Known about the structure:
Layout: E1 2-7, H1 21-40, E2 49-58, E3 68-78, E4 82-90, E5 96-106, H2 119-127
Antiparallel strand pairs: 1-3, 2-5, 3-4, 4-5
Amino acid sequence: MHEKEIEIRWRDLDPYGHVNNAVYATYLEEVRDEWLERALGRDGLLWDYVVARVAIDYRRELTLDDDRVVARCRLDSLGSSSVRTREELVTPHGETAAEAEAVLVARDRETGRPRPLTSDERSALEAA
Length: 128
C-alpha cells in the first residue's frame, strides 16, 4: 500500500468549515497518481491511463482541526485493460474519513481506445 500525507489547507474548506467533497477526490487522485508513477516510472507509461470510474464513500468530515490526512492507495485487481485500486483517507488519529475505489483504463495514444495491459505493466503494478 502506498501512503501520502496531505496537509489540509484553508482553501480546501467549503462554507460549512469542512473539506469539500470534491477535495476528497483530489486527495485520492494525488495518492493514486503517485502510486501509479512509483509503479510504472516516469517514462511516459503513466500518461497512458484514463480514469473510468471513481466511487467514494464518505465516512467522516475533515476540518482544519485535523491538520493532515493520510491518503492510501493499493492495487485491488487487474483486468485485461484496466486497473482497479482501493483507496482511503485516514485522520492522524486513525479514523477513516473516506473509502474509495477507482478504475483506470490503459489507452492507446494514437487511437484513444482501450488497449491491453502489457506483461511489464502487469508485473510492475502487481509489485507496487
